[in-house]
Structure formats: C-alpha cells, structure tokens
UniProtKB/TrEMBL annotation:
An MF annotation (GO) of this entry: DNA binding
Keywords on record: DNA-binding, Transcription, Transcription regulation
InterPro entries cross-referenced by the UniProt entry: ArsR-like_HTH (IPR011991), HTH_ArsR_DNA-bd_dom (IPR001845), HTH_MetalResp_TranReg (IPR051081), WH-like_DNA-bd_sf (IPR036388), WH_DNA-bd_sf (IPR036390)
PANTHER family associated with the record: ARSENICAL RESISTANCE OPERON REPRESSOR, TRANSCRIPTIONAL REGULATOR, ARSR FAMILY
Provenance organism: Caldalkalibacillus thermarum (strain TA2.A1)
Pfam families per record: HTH_5
Protein name: Metalloregulator ArsR/SmtB family transcription factor
Domain HTH arsR-type: 1-72
C-alpha cells in the first residue's frame, strides 16, 4: 500500500480491488497510517484519496526501503483495464 501511495493517489476501493481484502480491513490499515501522519488525504467530492506524506520525518528512512521494492505501476494498469481506477481531476 505504501509503495503504491508513494507514486499515486489511491482510494480505499482501489486497494480493496488490488489486494482482494474487505473495505473495513483496508480502511483500518489506511487509518493507522493516517493517524501517524505517514499518509495524507485529499477529498474531492465523495472521494477520499490517500498519498504517502513525503514531508513526514520518517520518509527519509522509508524511501530507500521503498526504492528496493518492485515497480507496481502494472497494478495501476490492471485497475485501469478492469475499469476500477478512480481518476478524478483536481478541483
């Protein structure tokens, strides 16, 4: 989740589809990341998007670890192909 949020804004429904987890389980993970301010949220209408907070004091520690993980852009492409990617323009 954190690796995806490093590069992309994501909503809970996208994580549900990607990880085949329940919405409450995904929400609990996101809520914990948000509670320590490692993730920030952006609201657009009824949608809430989450992204890694690169300004967080722990980011300098986390970023080298995330850089070692495999590229996950193919997961975003899978969501798009299935029509499950929630992409809304800002504003």
């Amino acid at each position: 989740m954190v690796a995806l949020m490093r590069e992309h804004e994501m909503c809970v429904c996208e994580f549900v589809a990607l990880f085949e987890m329940s919405q409450p389980a995904v929400s609990q993970h996101v809520r914990r990341l948000k509670s320590v301010k490692l993730v920030k949220e952006t609201r657009r209408g009824q949608w809430v998007f989450y992204q890694l907070n690169k300004g967080h004091q722990a980011y300098a520690f986390i970023e080298p670890l995330l850089a070692k993980l495999p590229d996950l852009n193919h997961k975003i492409a899978e969501l798009e192909q299935k029509g499950l990617r929630v992409c809304l323009p800002e504003g």
